[in-house]
Amino acid sequence: MSKVRDTSESFLHRQKRFLIFQEGVNWVQMVVGIGFPVALRDETVTLGATVKSYYLLPTNSNDITRPVLSLIPNDATIPIEERSIFPSRWEIYSAIRNFMDKFNLGNGKTCLLRAICEAALVPFEQKSGLLTEVVQIILTPSTTKEQMKQYSDVEYHAAEKYGREQHDCERIFTGCNTYIFKEFTRLFM
């Protein structure tokens, strides 16, 4: 009969481990869709909608130990019961600025001010579609009644005013190598 080692008095200890993926395009993706057949006289068309969501897999242990939850900074000065589940216009502007700065698309604030100016200079036509109307509303700060978060937000209203007064937006807002408004009109108009 062989002797069995008694381990009931000792504790095994193992260091925490994390799963890290190689650099590159790594994500988990989910696509959900629904389609409805529409019978026409001579052919059949499927009308549908899809929703696509993806999660980037970690490539660095900091992704797990110190995750970035939002491009919009959390404002702890606002009581929880007064916070909205929808971002304010100023938070959307902050997210656009932070995104552009993070991915080196130019000075985020300057590019956004220029886009607001250009949207006021040459507004989209009403018949351009829902997406263009939403972008027009986002790039028109005077369409909100929200209080400004900080005094510097008055610059957005000034950029809109410059555009309405037919000023040269490109000359006023220099230092932007990504032209948001021009790229949007090129892609969606």
Mind explaining what this structure looks like?
It holds the Pfam family DM4_12. The protein is 35% helix and 14% strand. It has seven helices and two strands, in the order ββααααααα. A two-stranded antiparallel sheet has the order 1-2. The protein has a domain of 116 residues.
List the helices and strands and how they pair.
Blueprint: E1 27-39, E2 44-56, H1 61-65, H2 89-102, H3 108-121, H4 130-138, H5 154-164, H6 169-172, H7 180-188
Antiparallel strand pairs: 1-2
Notable characteristics:
single chain; 189 residues; alpha+beta; two-stranded antiparallel ribbon; 14% strand; extended; DM4_12
How many E-type strands?
2
Structural class: alpha+beta
The helix tally amounts to 7
Distance between the termini: 84 Å
Uncertain segments are none
User: Major beta sheet, specifics?
Assistant: 2 strands, antiparallel
InterPro entries: DM4_12
Tell me briefly what this model is:
The chain has 189 residues and is of the alpha+beta class. The chain contains seven helices and two strands. It has helices at residues 61-65, 89-102, 108-121, 130-138, 154-164, 169-172, 180-188; strands at 27-39, 44-56.
